[in-house]
Amino acid sequence: MHDGQAAHREPQAGGPRKACRPHDFHERGRRLSERLTRSAMAKITYIEHDGTEHVIDVKPGLSVMEGAVKNNIPGIDADCGGACACATCHVYVDEAFLAKTGTRSAMEESMLDFAEGVEENSRLSCQIKVTDDLDGLVVRMPESQH
Ligand code: FES
């Protein structure tokens, strides 16, 4: 190859390679895209106050609240739409995920003053951004958001 001669190629196992047809190309791309999209989701378990569980795949970048609202999960009202101004997206974060979900901001802390039944693991779900690290997250909803 280095002396300017064309490289001699051995036929590959199974015979010569077939030319890639446009349909094959698009089909492979579609399958790869689906695989990447699927693996990029974080599985979150939302548990209603009565114990009903909802296991949802949530796209990283969304908030935990958005994951619930987009999937019609009852128990998270999110009246302000995620502006940290209503406290109706209150959840209890499973102990195993407290470090990964981070700490409350000062604004979140003051909004939680308006929520009922606040505990050490209480968070406003609109303030928790979903990341790959939160795959497996479990949050529980309070009895009421009002
Ligand atoms: S949605 Fe209003 S504070 Fe979270």
From TrEMBL:
<keyword id="KW-0001">2Fe-2S</keyword>
<feature type="compositionally biased region" description="Basic and acidic residues">
    <location>
        <begin position="21"/>
        <end position="33"/>
    </location>
</feature>
<dbReference type="Pfam" id="PF00111">
    <property type="entry name" value="Fer2"/>
</dbReference>
<feature type="compositionally biased region" description="Basic and acidic residues">
    <location>
        <begin position="1"/>
        <end position="11"/>
    </location>
</feature>
<dbReference type="GO" id="GO:0009055">
    <property type="term" value="F:electron transfer activity"/>
</dbReference>
<keyword id="KW-0411">Iron-sulfur</keyword>
<feature type="domain" description="2Fe-2S ferredoxin-type">
    <location>
        <begin position="42"/>
        <end position="145"/>
    </location>
</feature>
<dbReference type="InterPro" id="IPR001041">
    <property type="entry name" value="2Fe-2S_ferredoxin-type"/>
</dbReference>
<keyword id="KW-0408">Iron</keyword>
<keyword id="KW-0479">Metal-binding</keyword>
<feature type="region of interest" description="Disordered">
    <location>
        <begin position="1"/>
        <end position="33"/>
    </location>
</feature>
<dbReference type="InterPro" id="IPR001055">
    <property type="entry name" value="Adrenodoxin-like"/>
</dbReference>
<dbReference type="InterPro" id="IPR018298">
    <property type="entry name" value="Adrenodoxin_Fe-S_BS"/>
</dbReference>
<comment type="similarity">
    <text>Belongs to the adrenodoxin/putidaredoxin family.</text>
</comment>
<dbReference type="GO" id="GO:0046872">
    <property type="term" value="F:metal ion binding"/>
</dbReference>
<dbReference type="GO" id="GO:0051537">
    <property type="term" value="F:2 iron, 2 sulfur cluster binding"/>
</dbReference>
<dbReference type="GO" id="GO:0140647">
    <property type="term" value="P:P450-containing electron transport chain"/>
</dbReference>
<dbReference type="InterPro" id="IPR012675">
    <property type="entry name" value="Beta-grasp_dom_sf"/>
</dbReference>
<dbReference type="InterPro" id="IPR036010">
    <property type="entry name" value="2Fe-2S_ferredoxin-like_sf"/>
</dbReference>
<protein>
    <submittedName>
        <fullName>Ferredoxin, 2Fe-2S</fullName>
    </submittedName>
</protein>
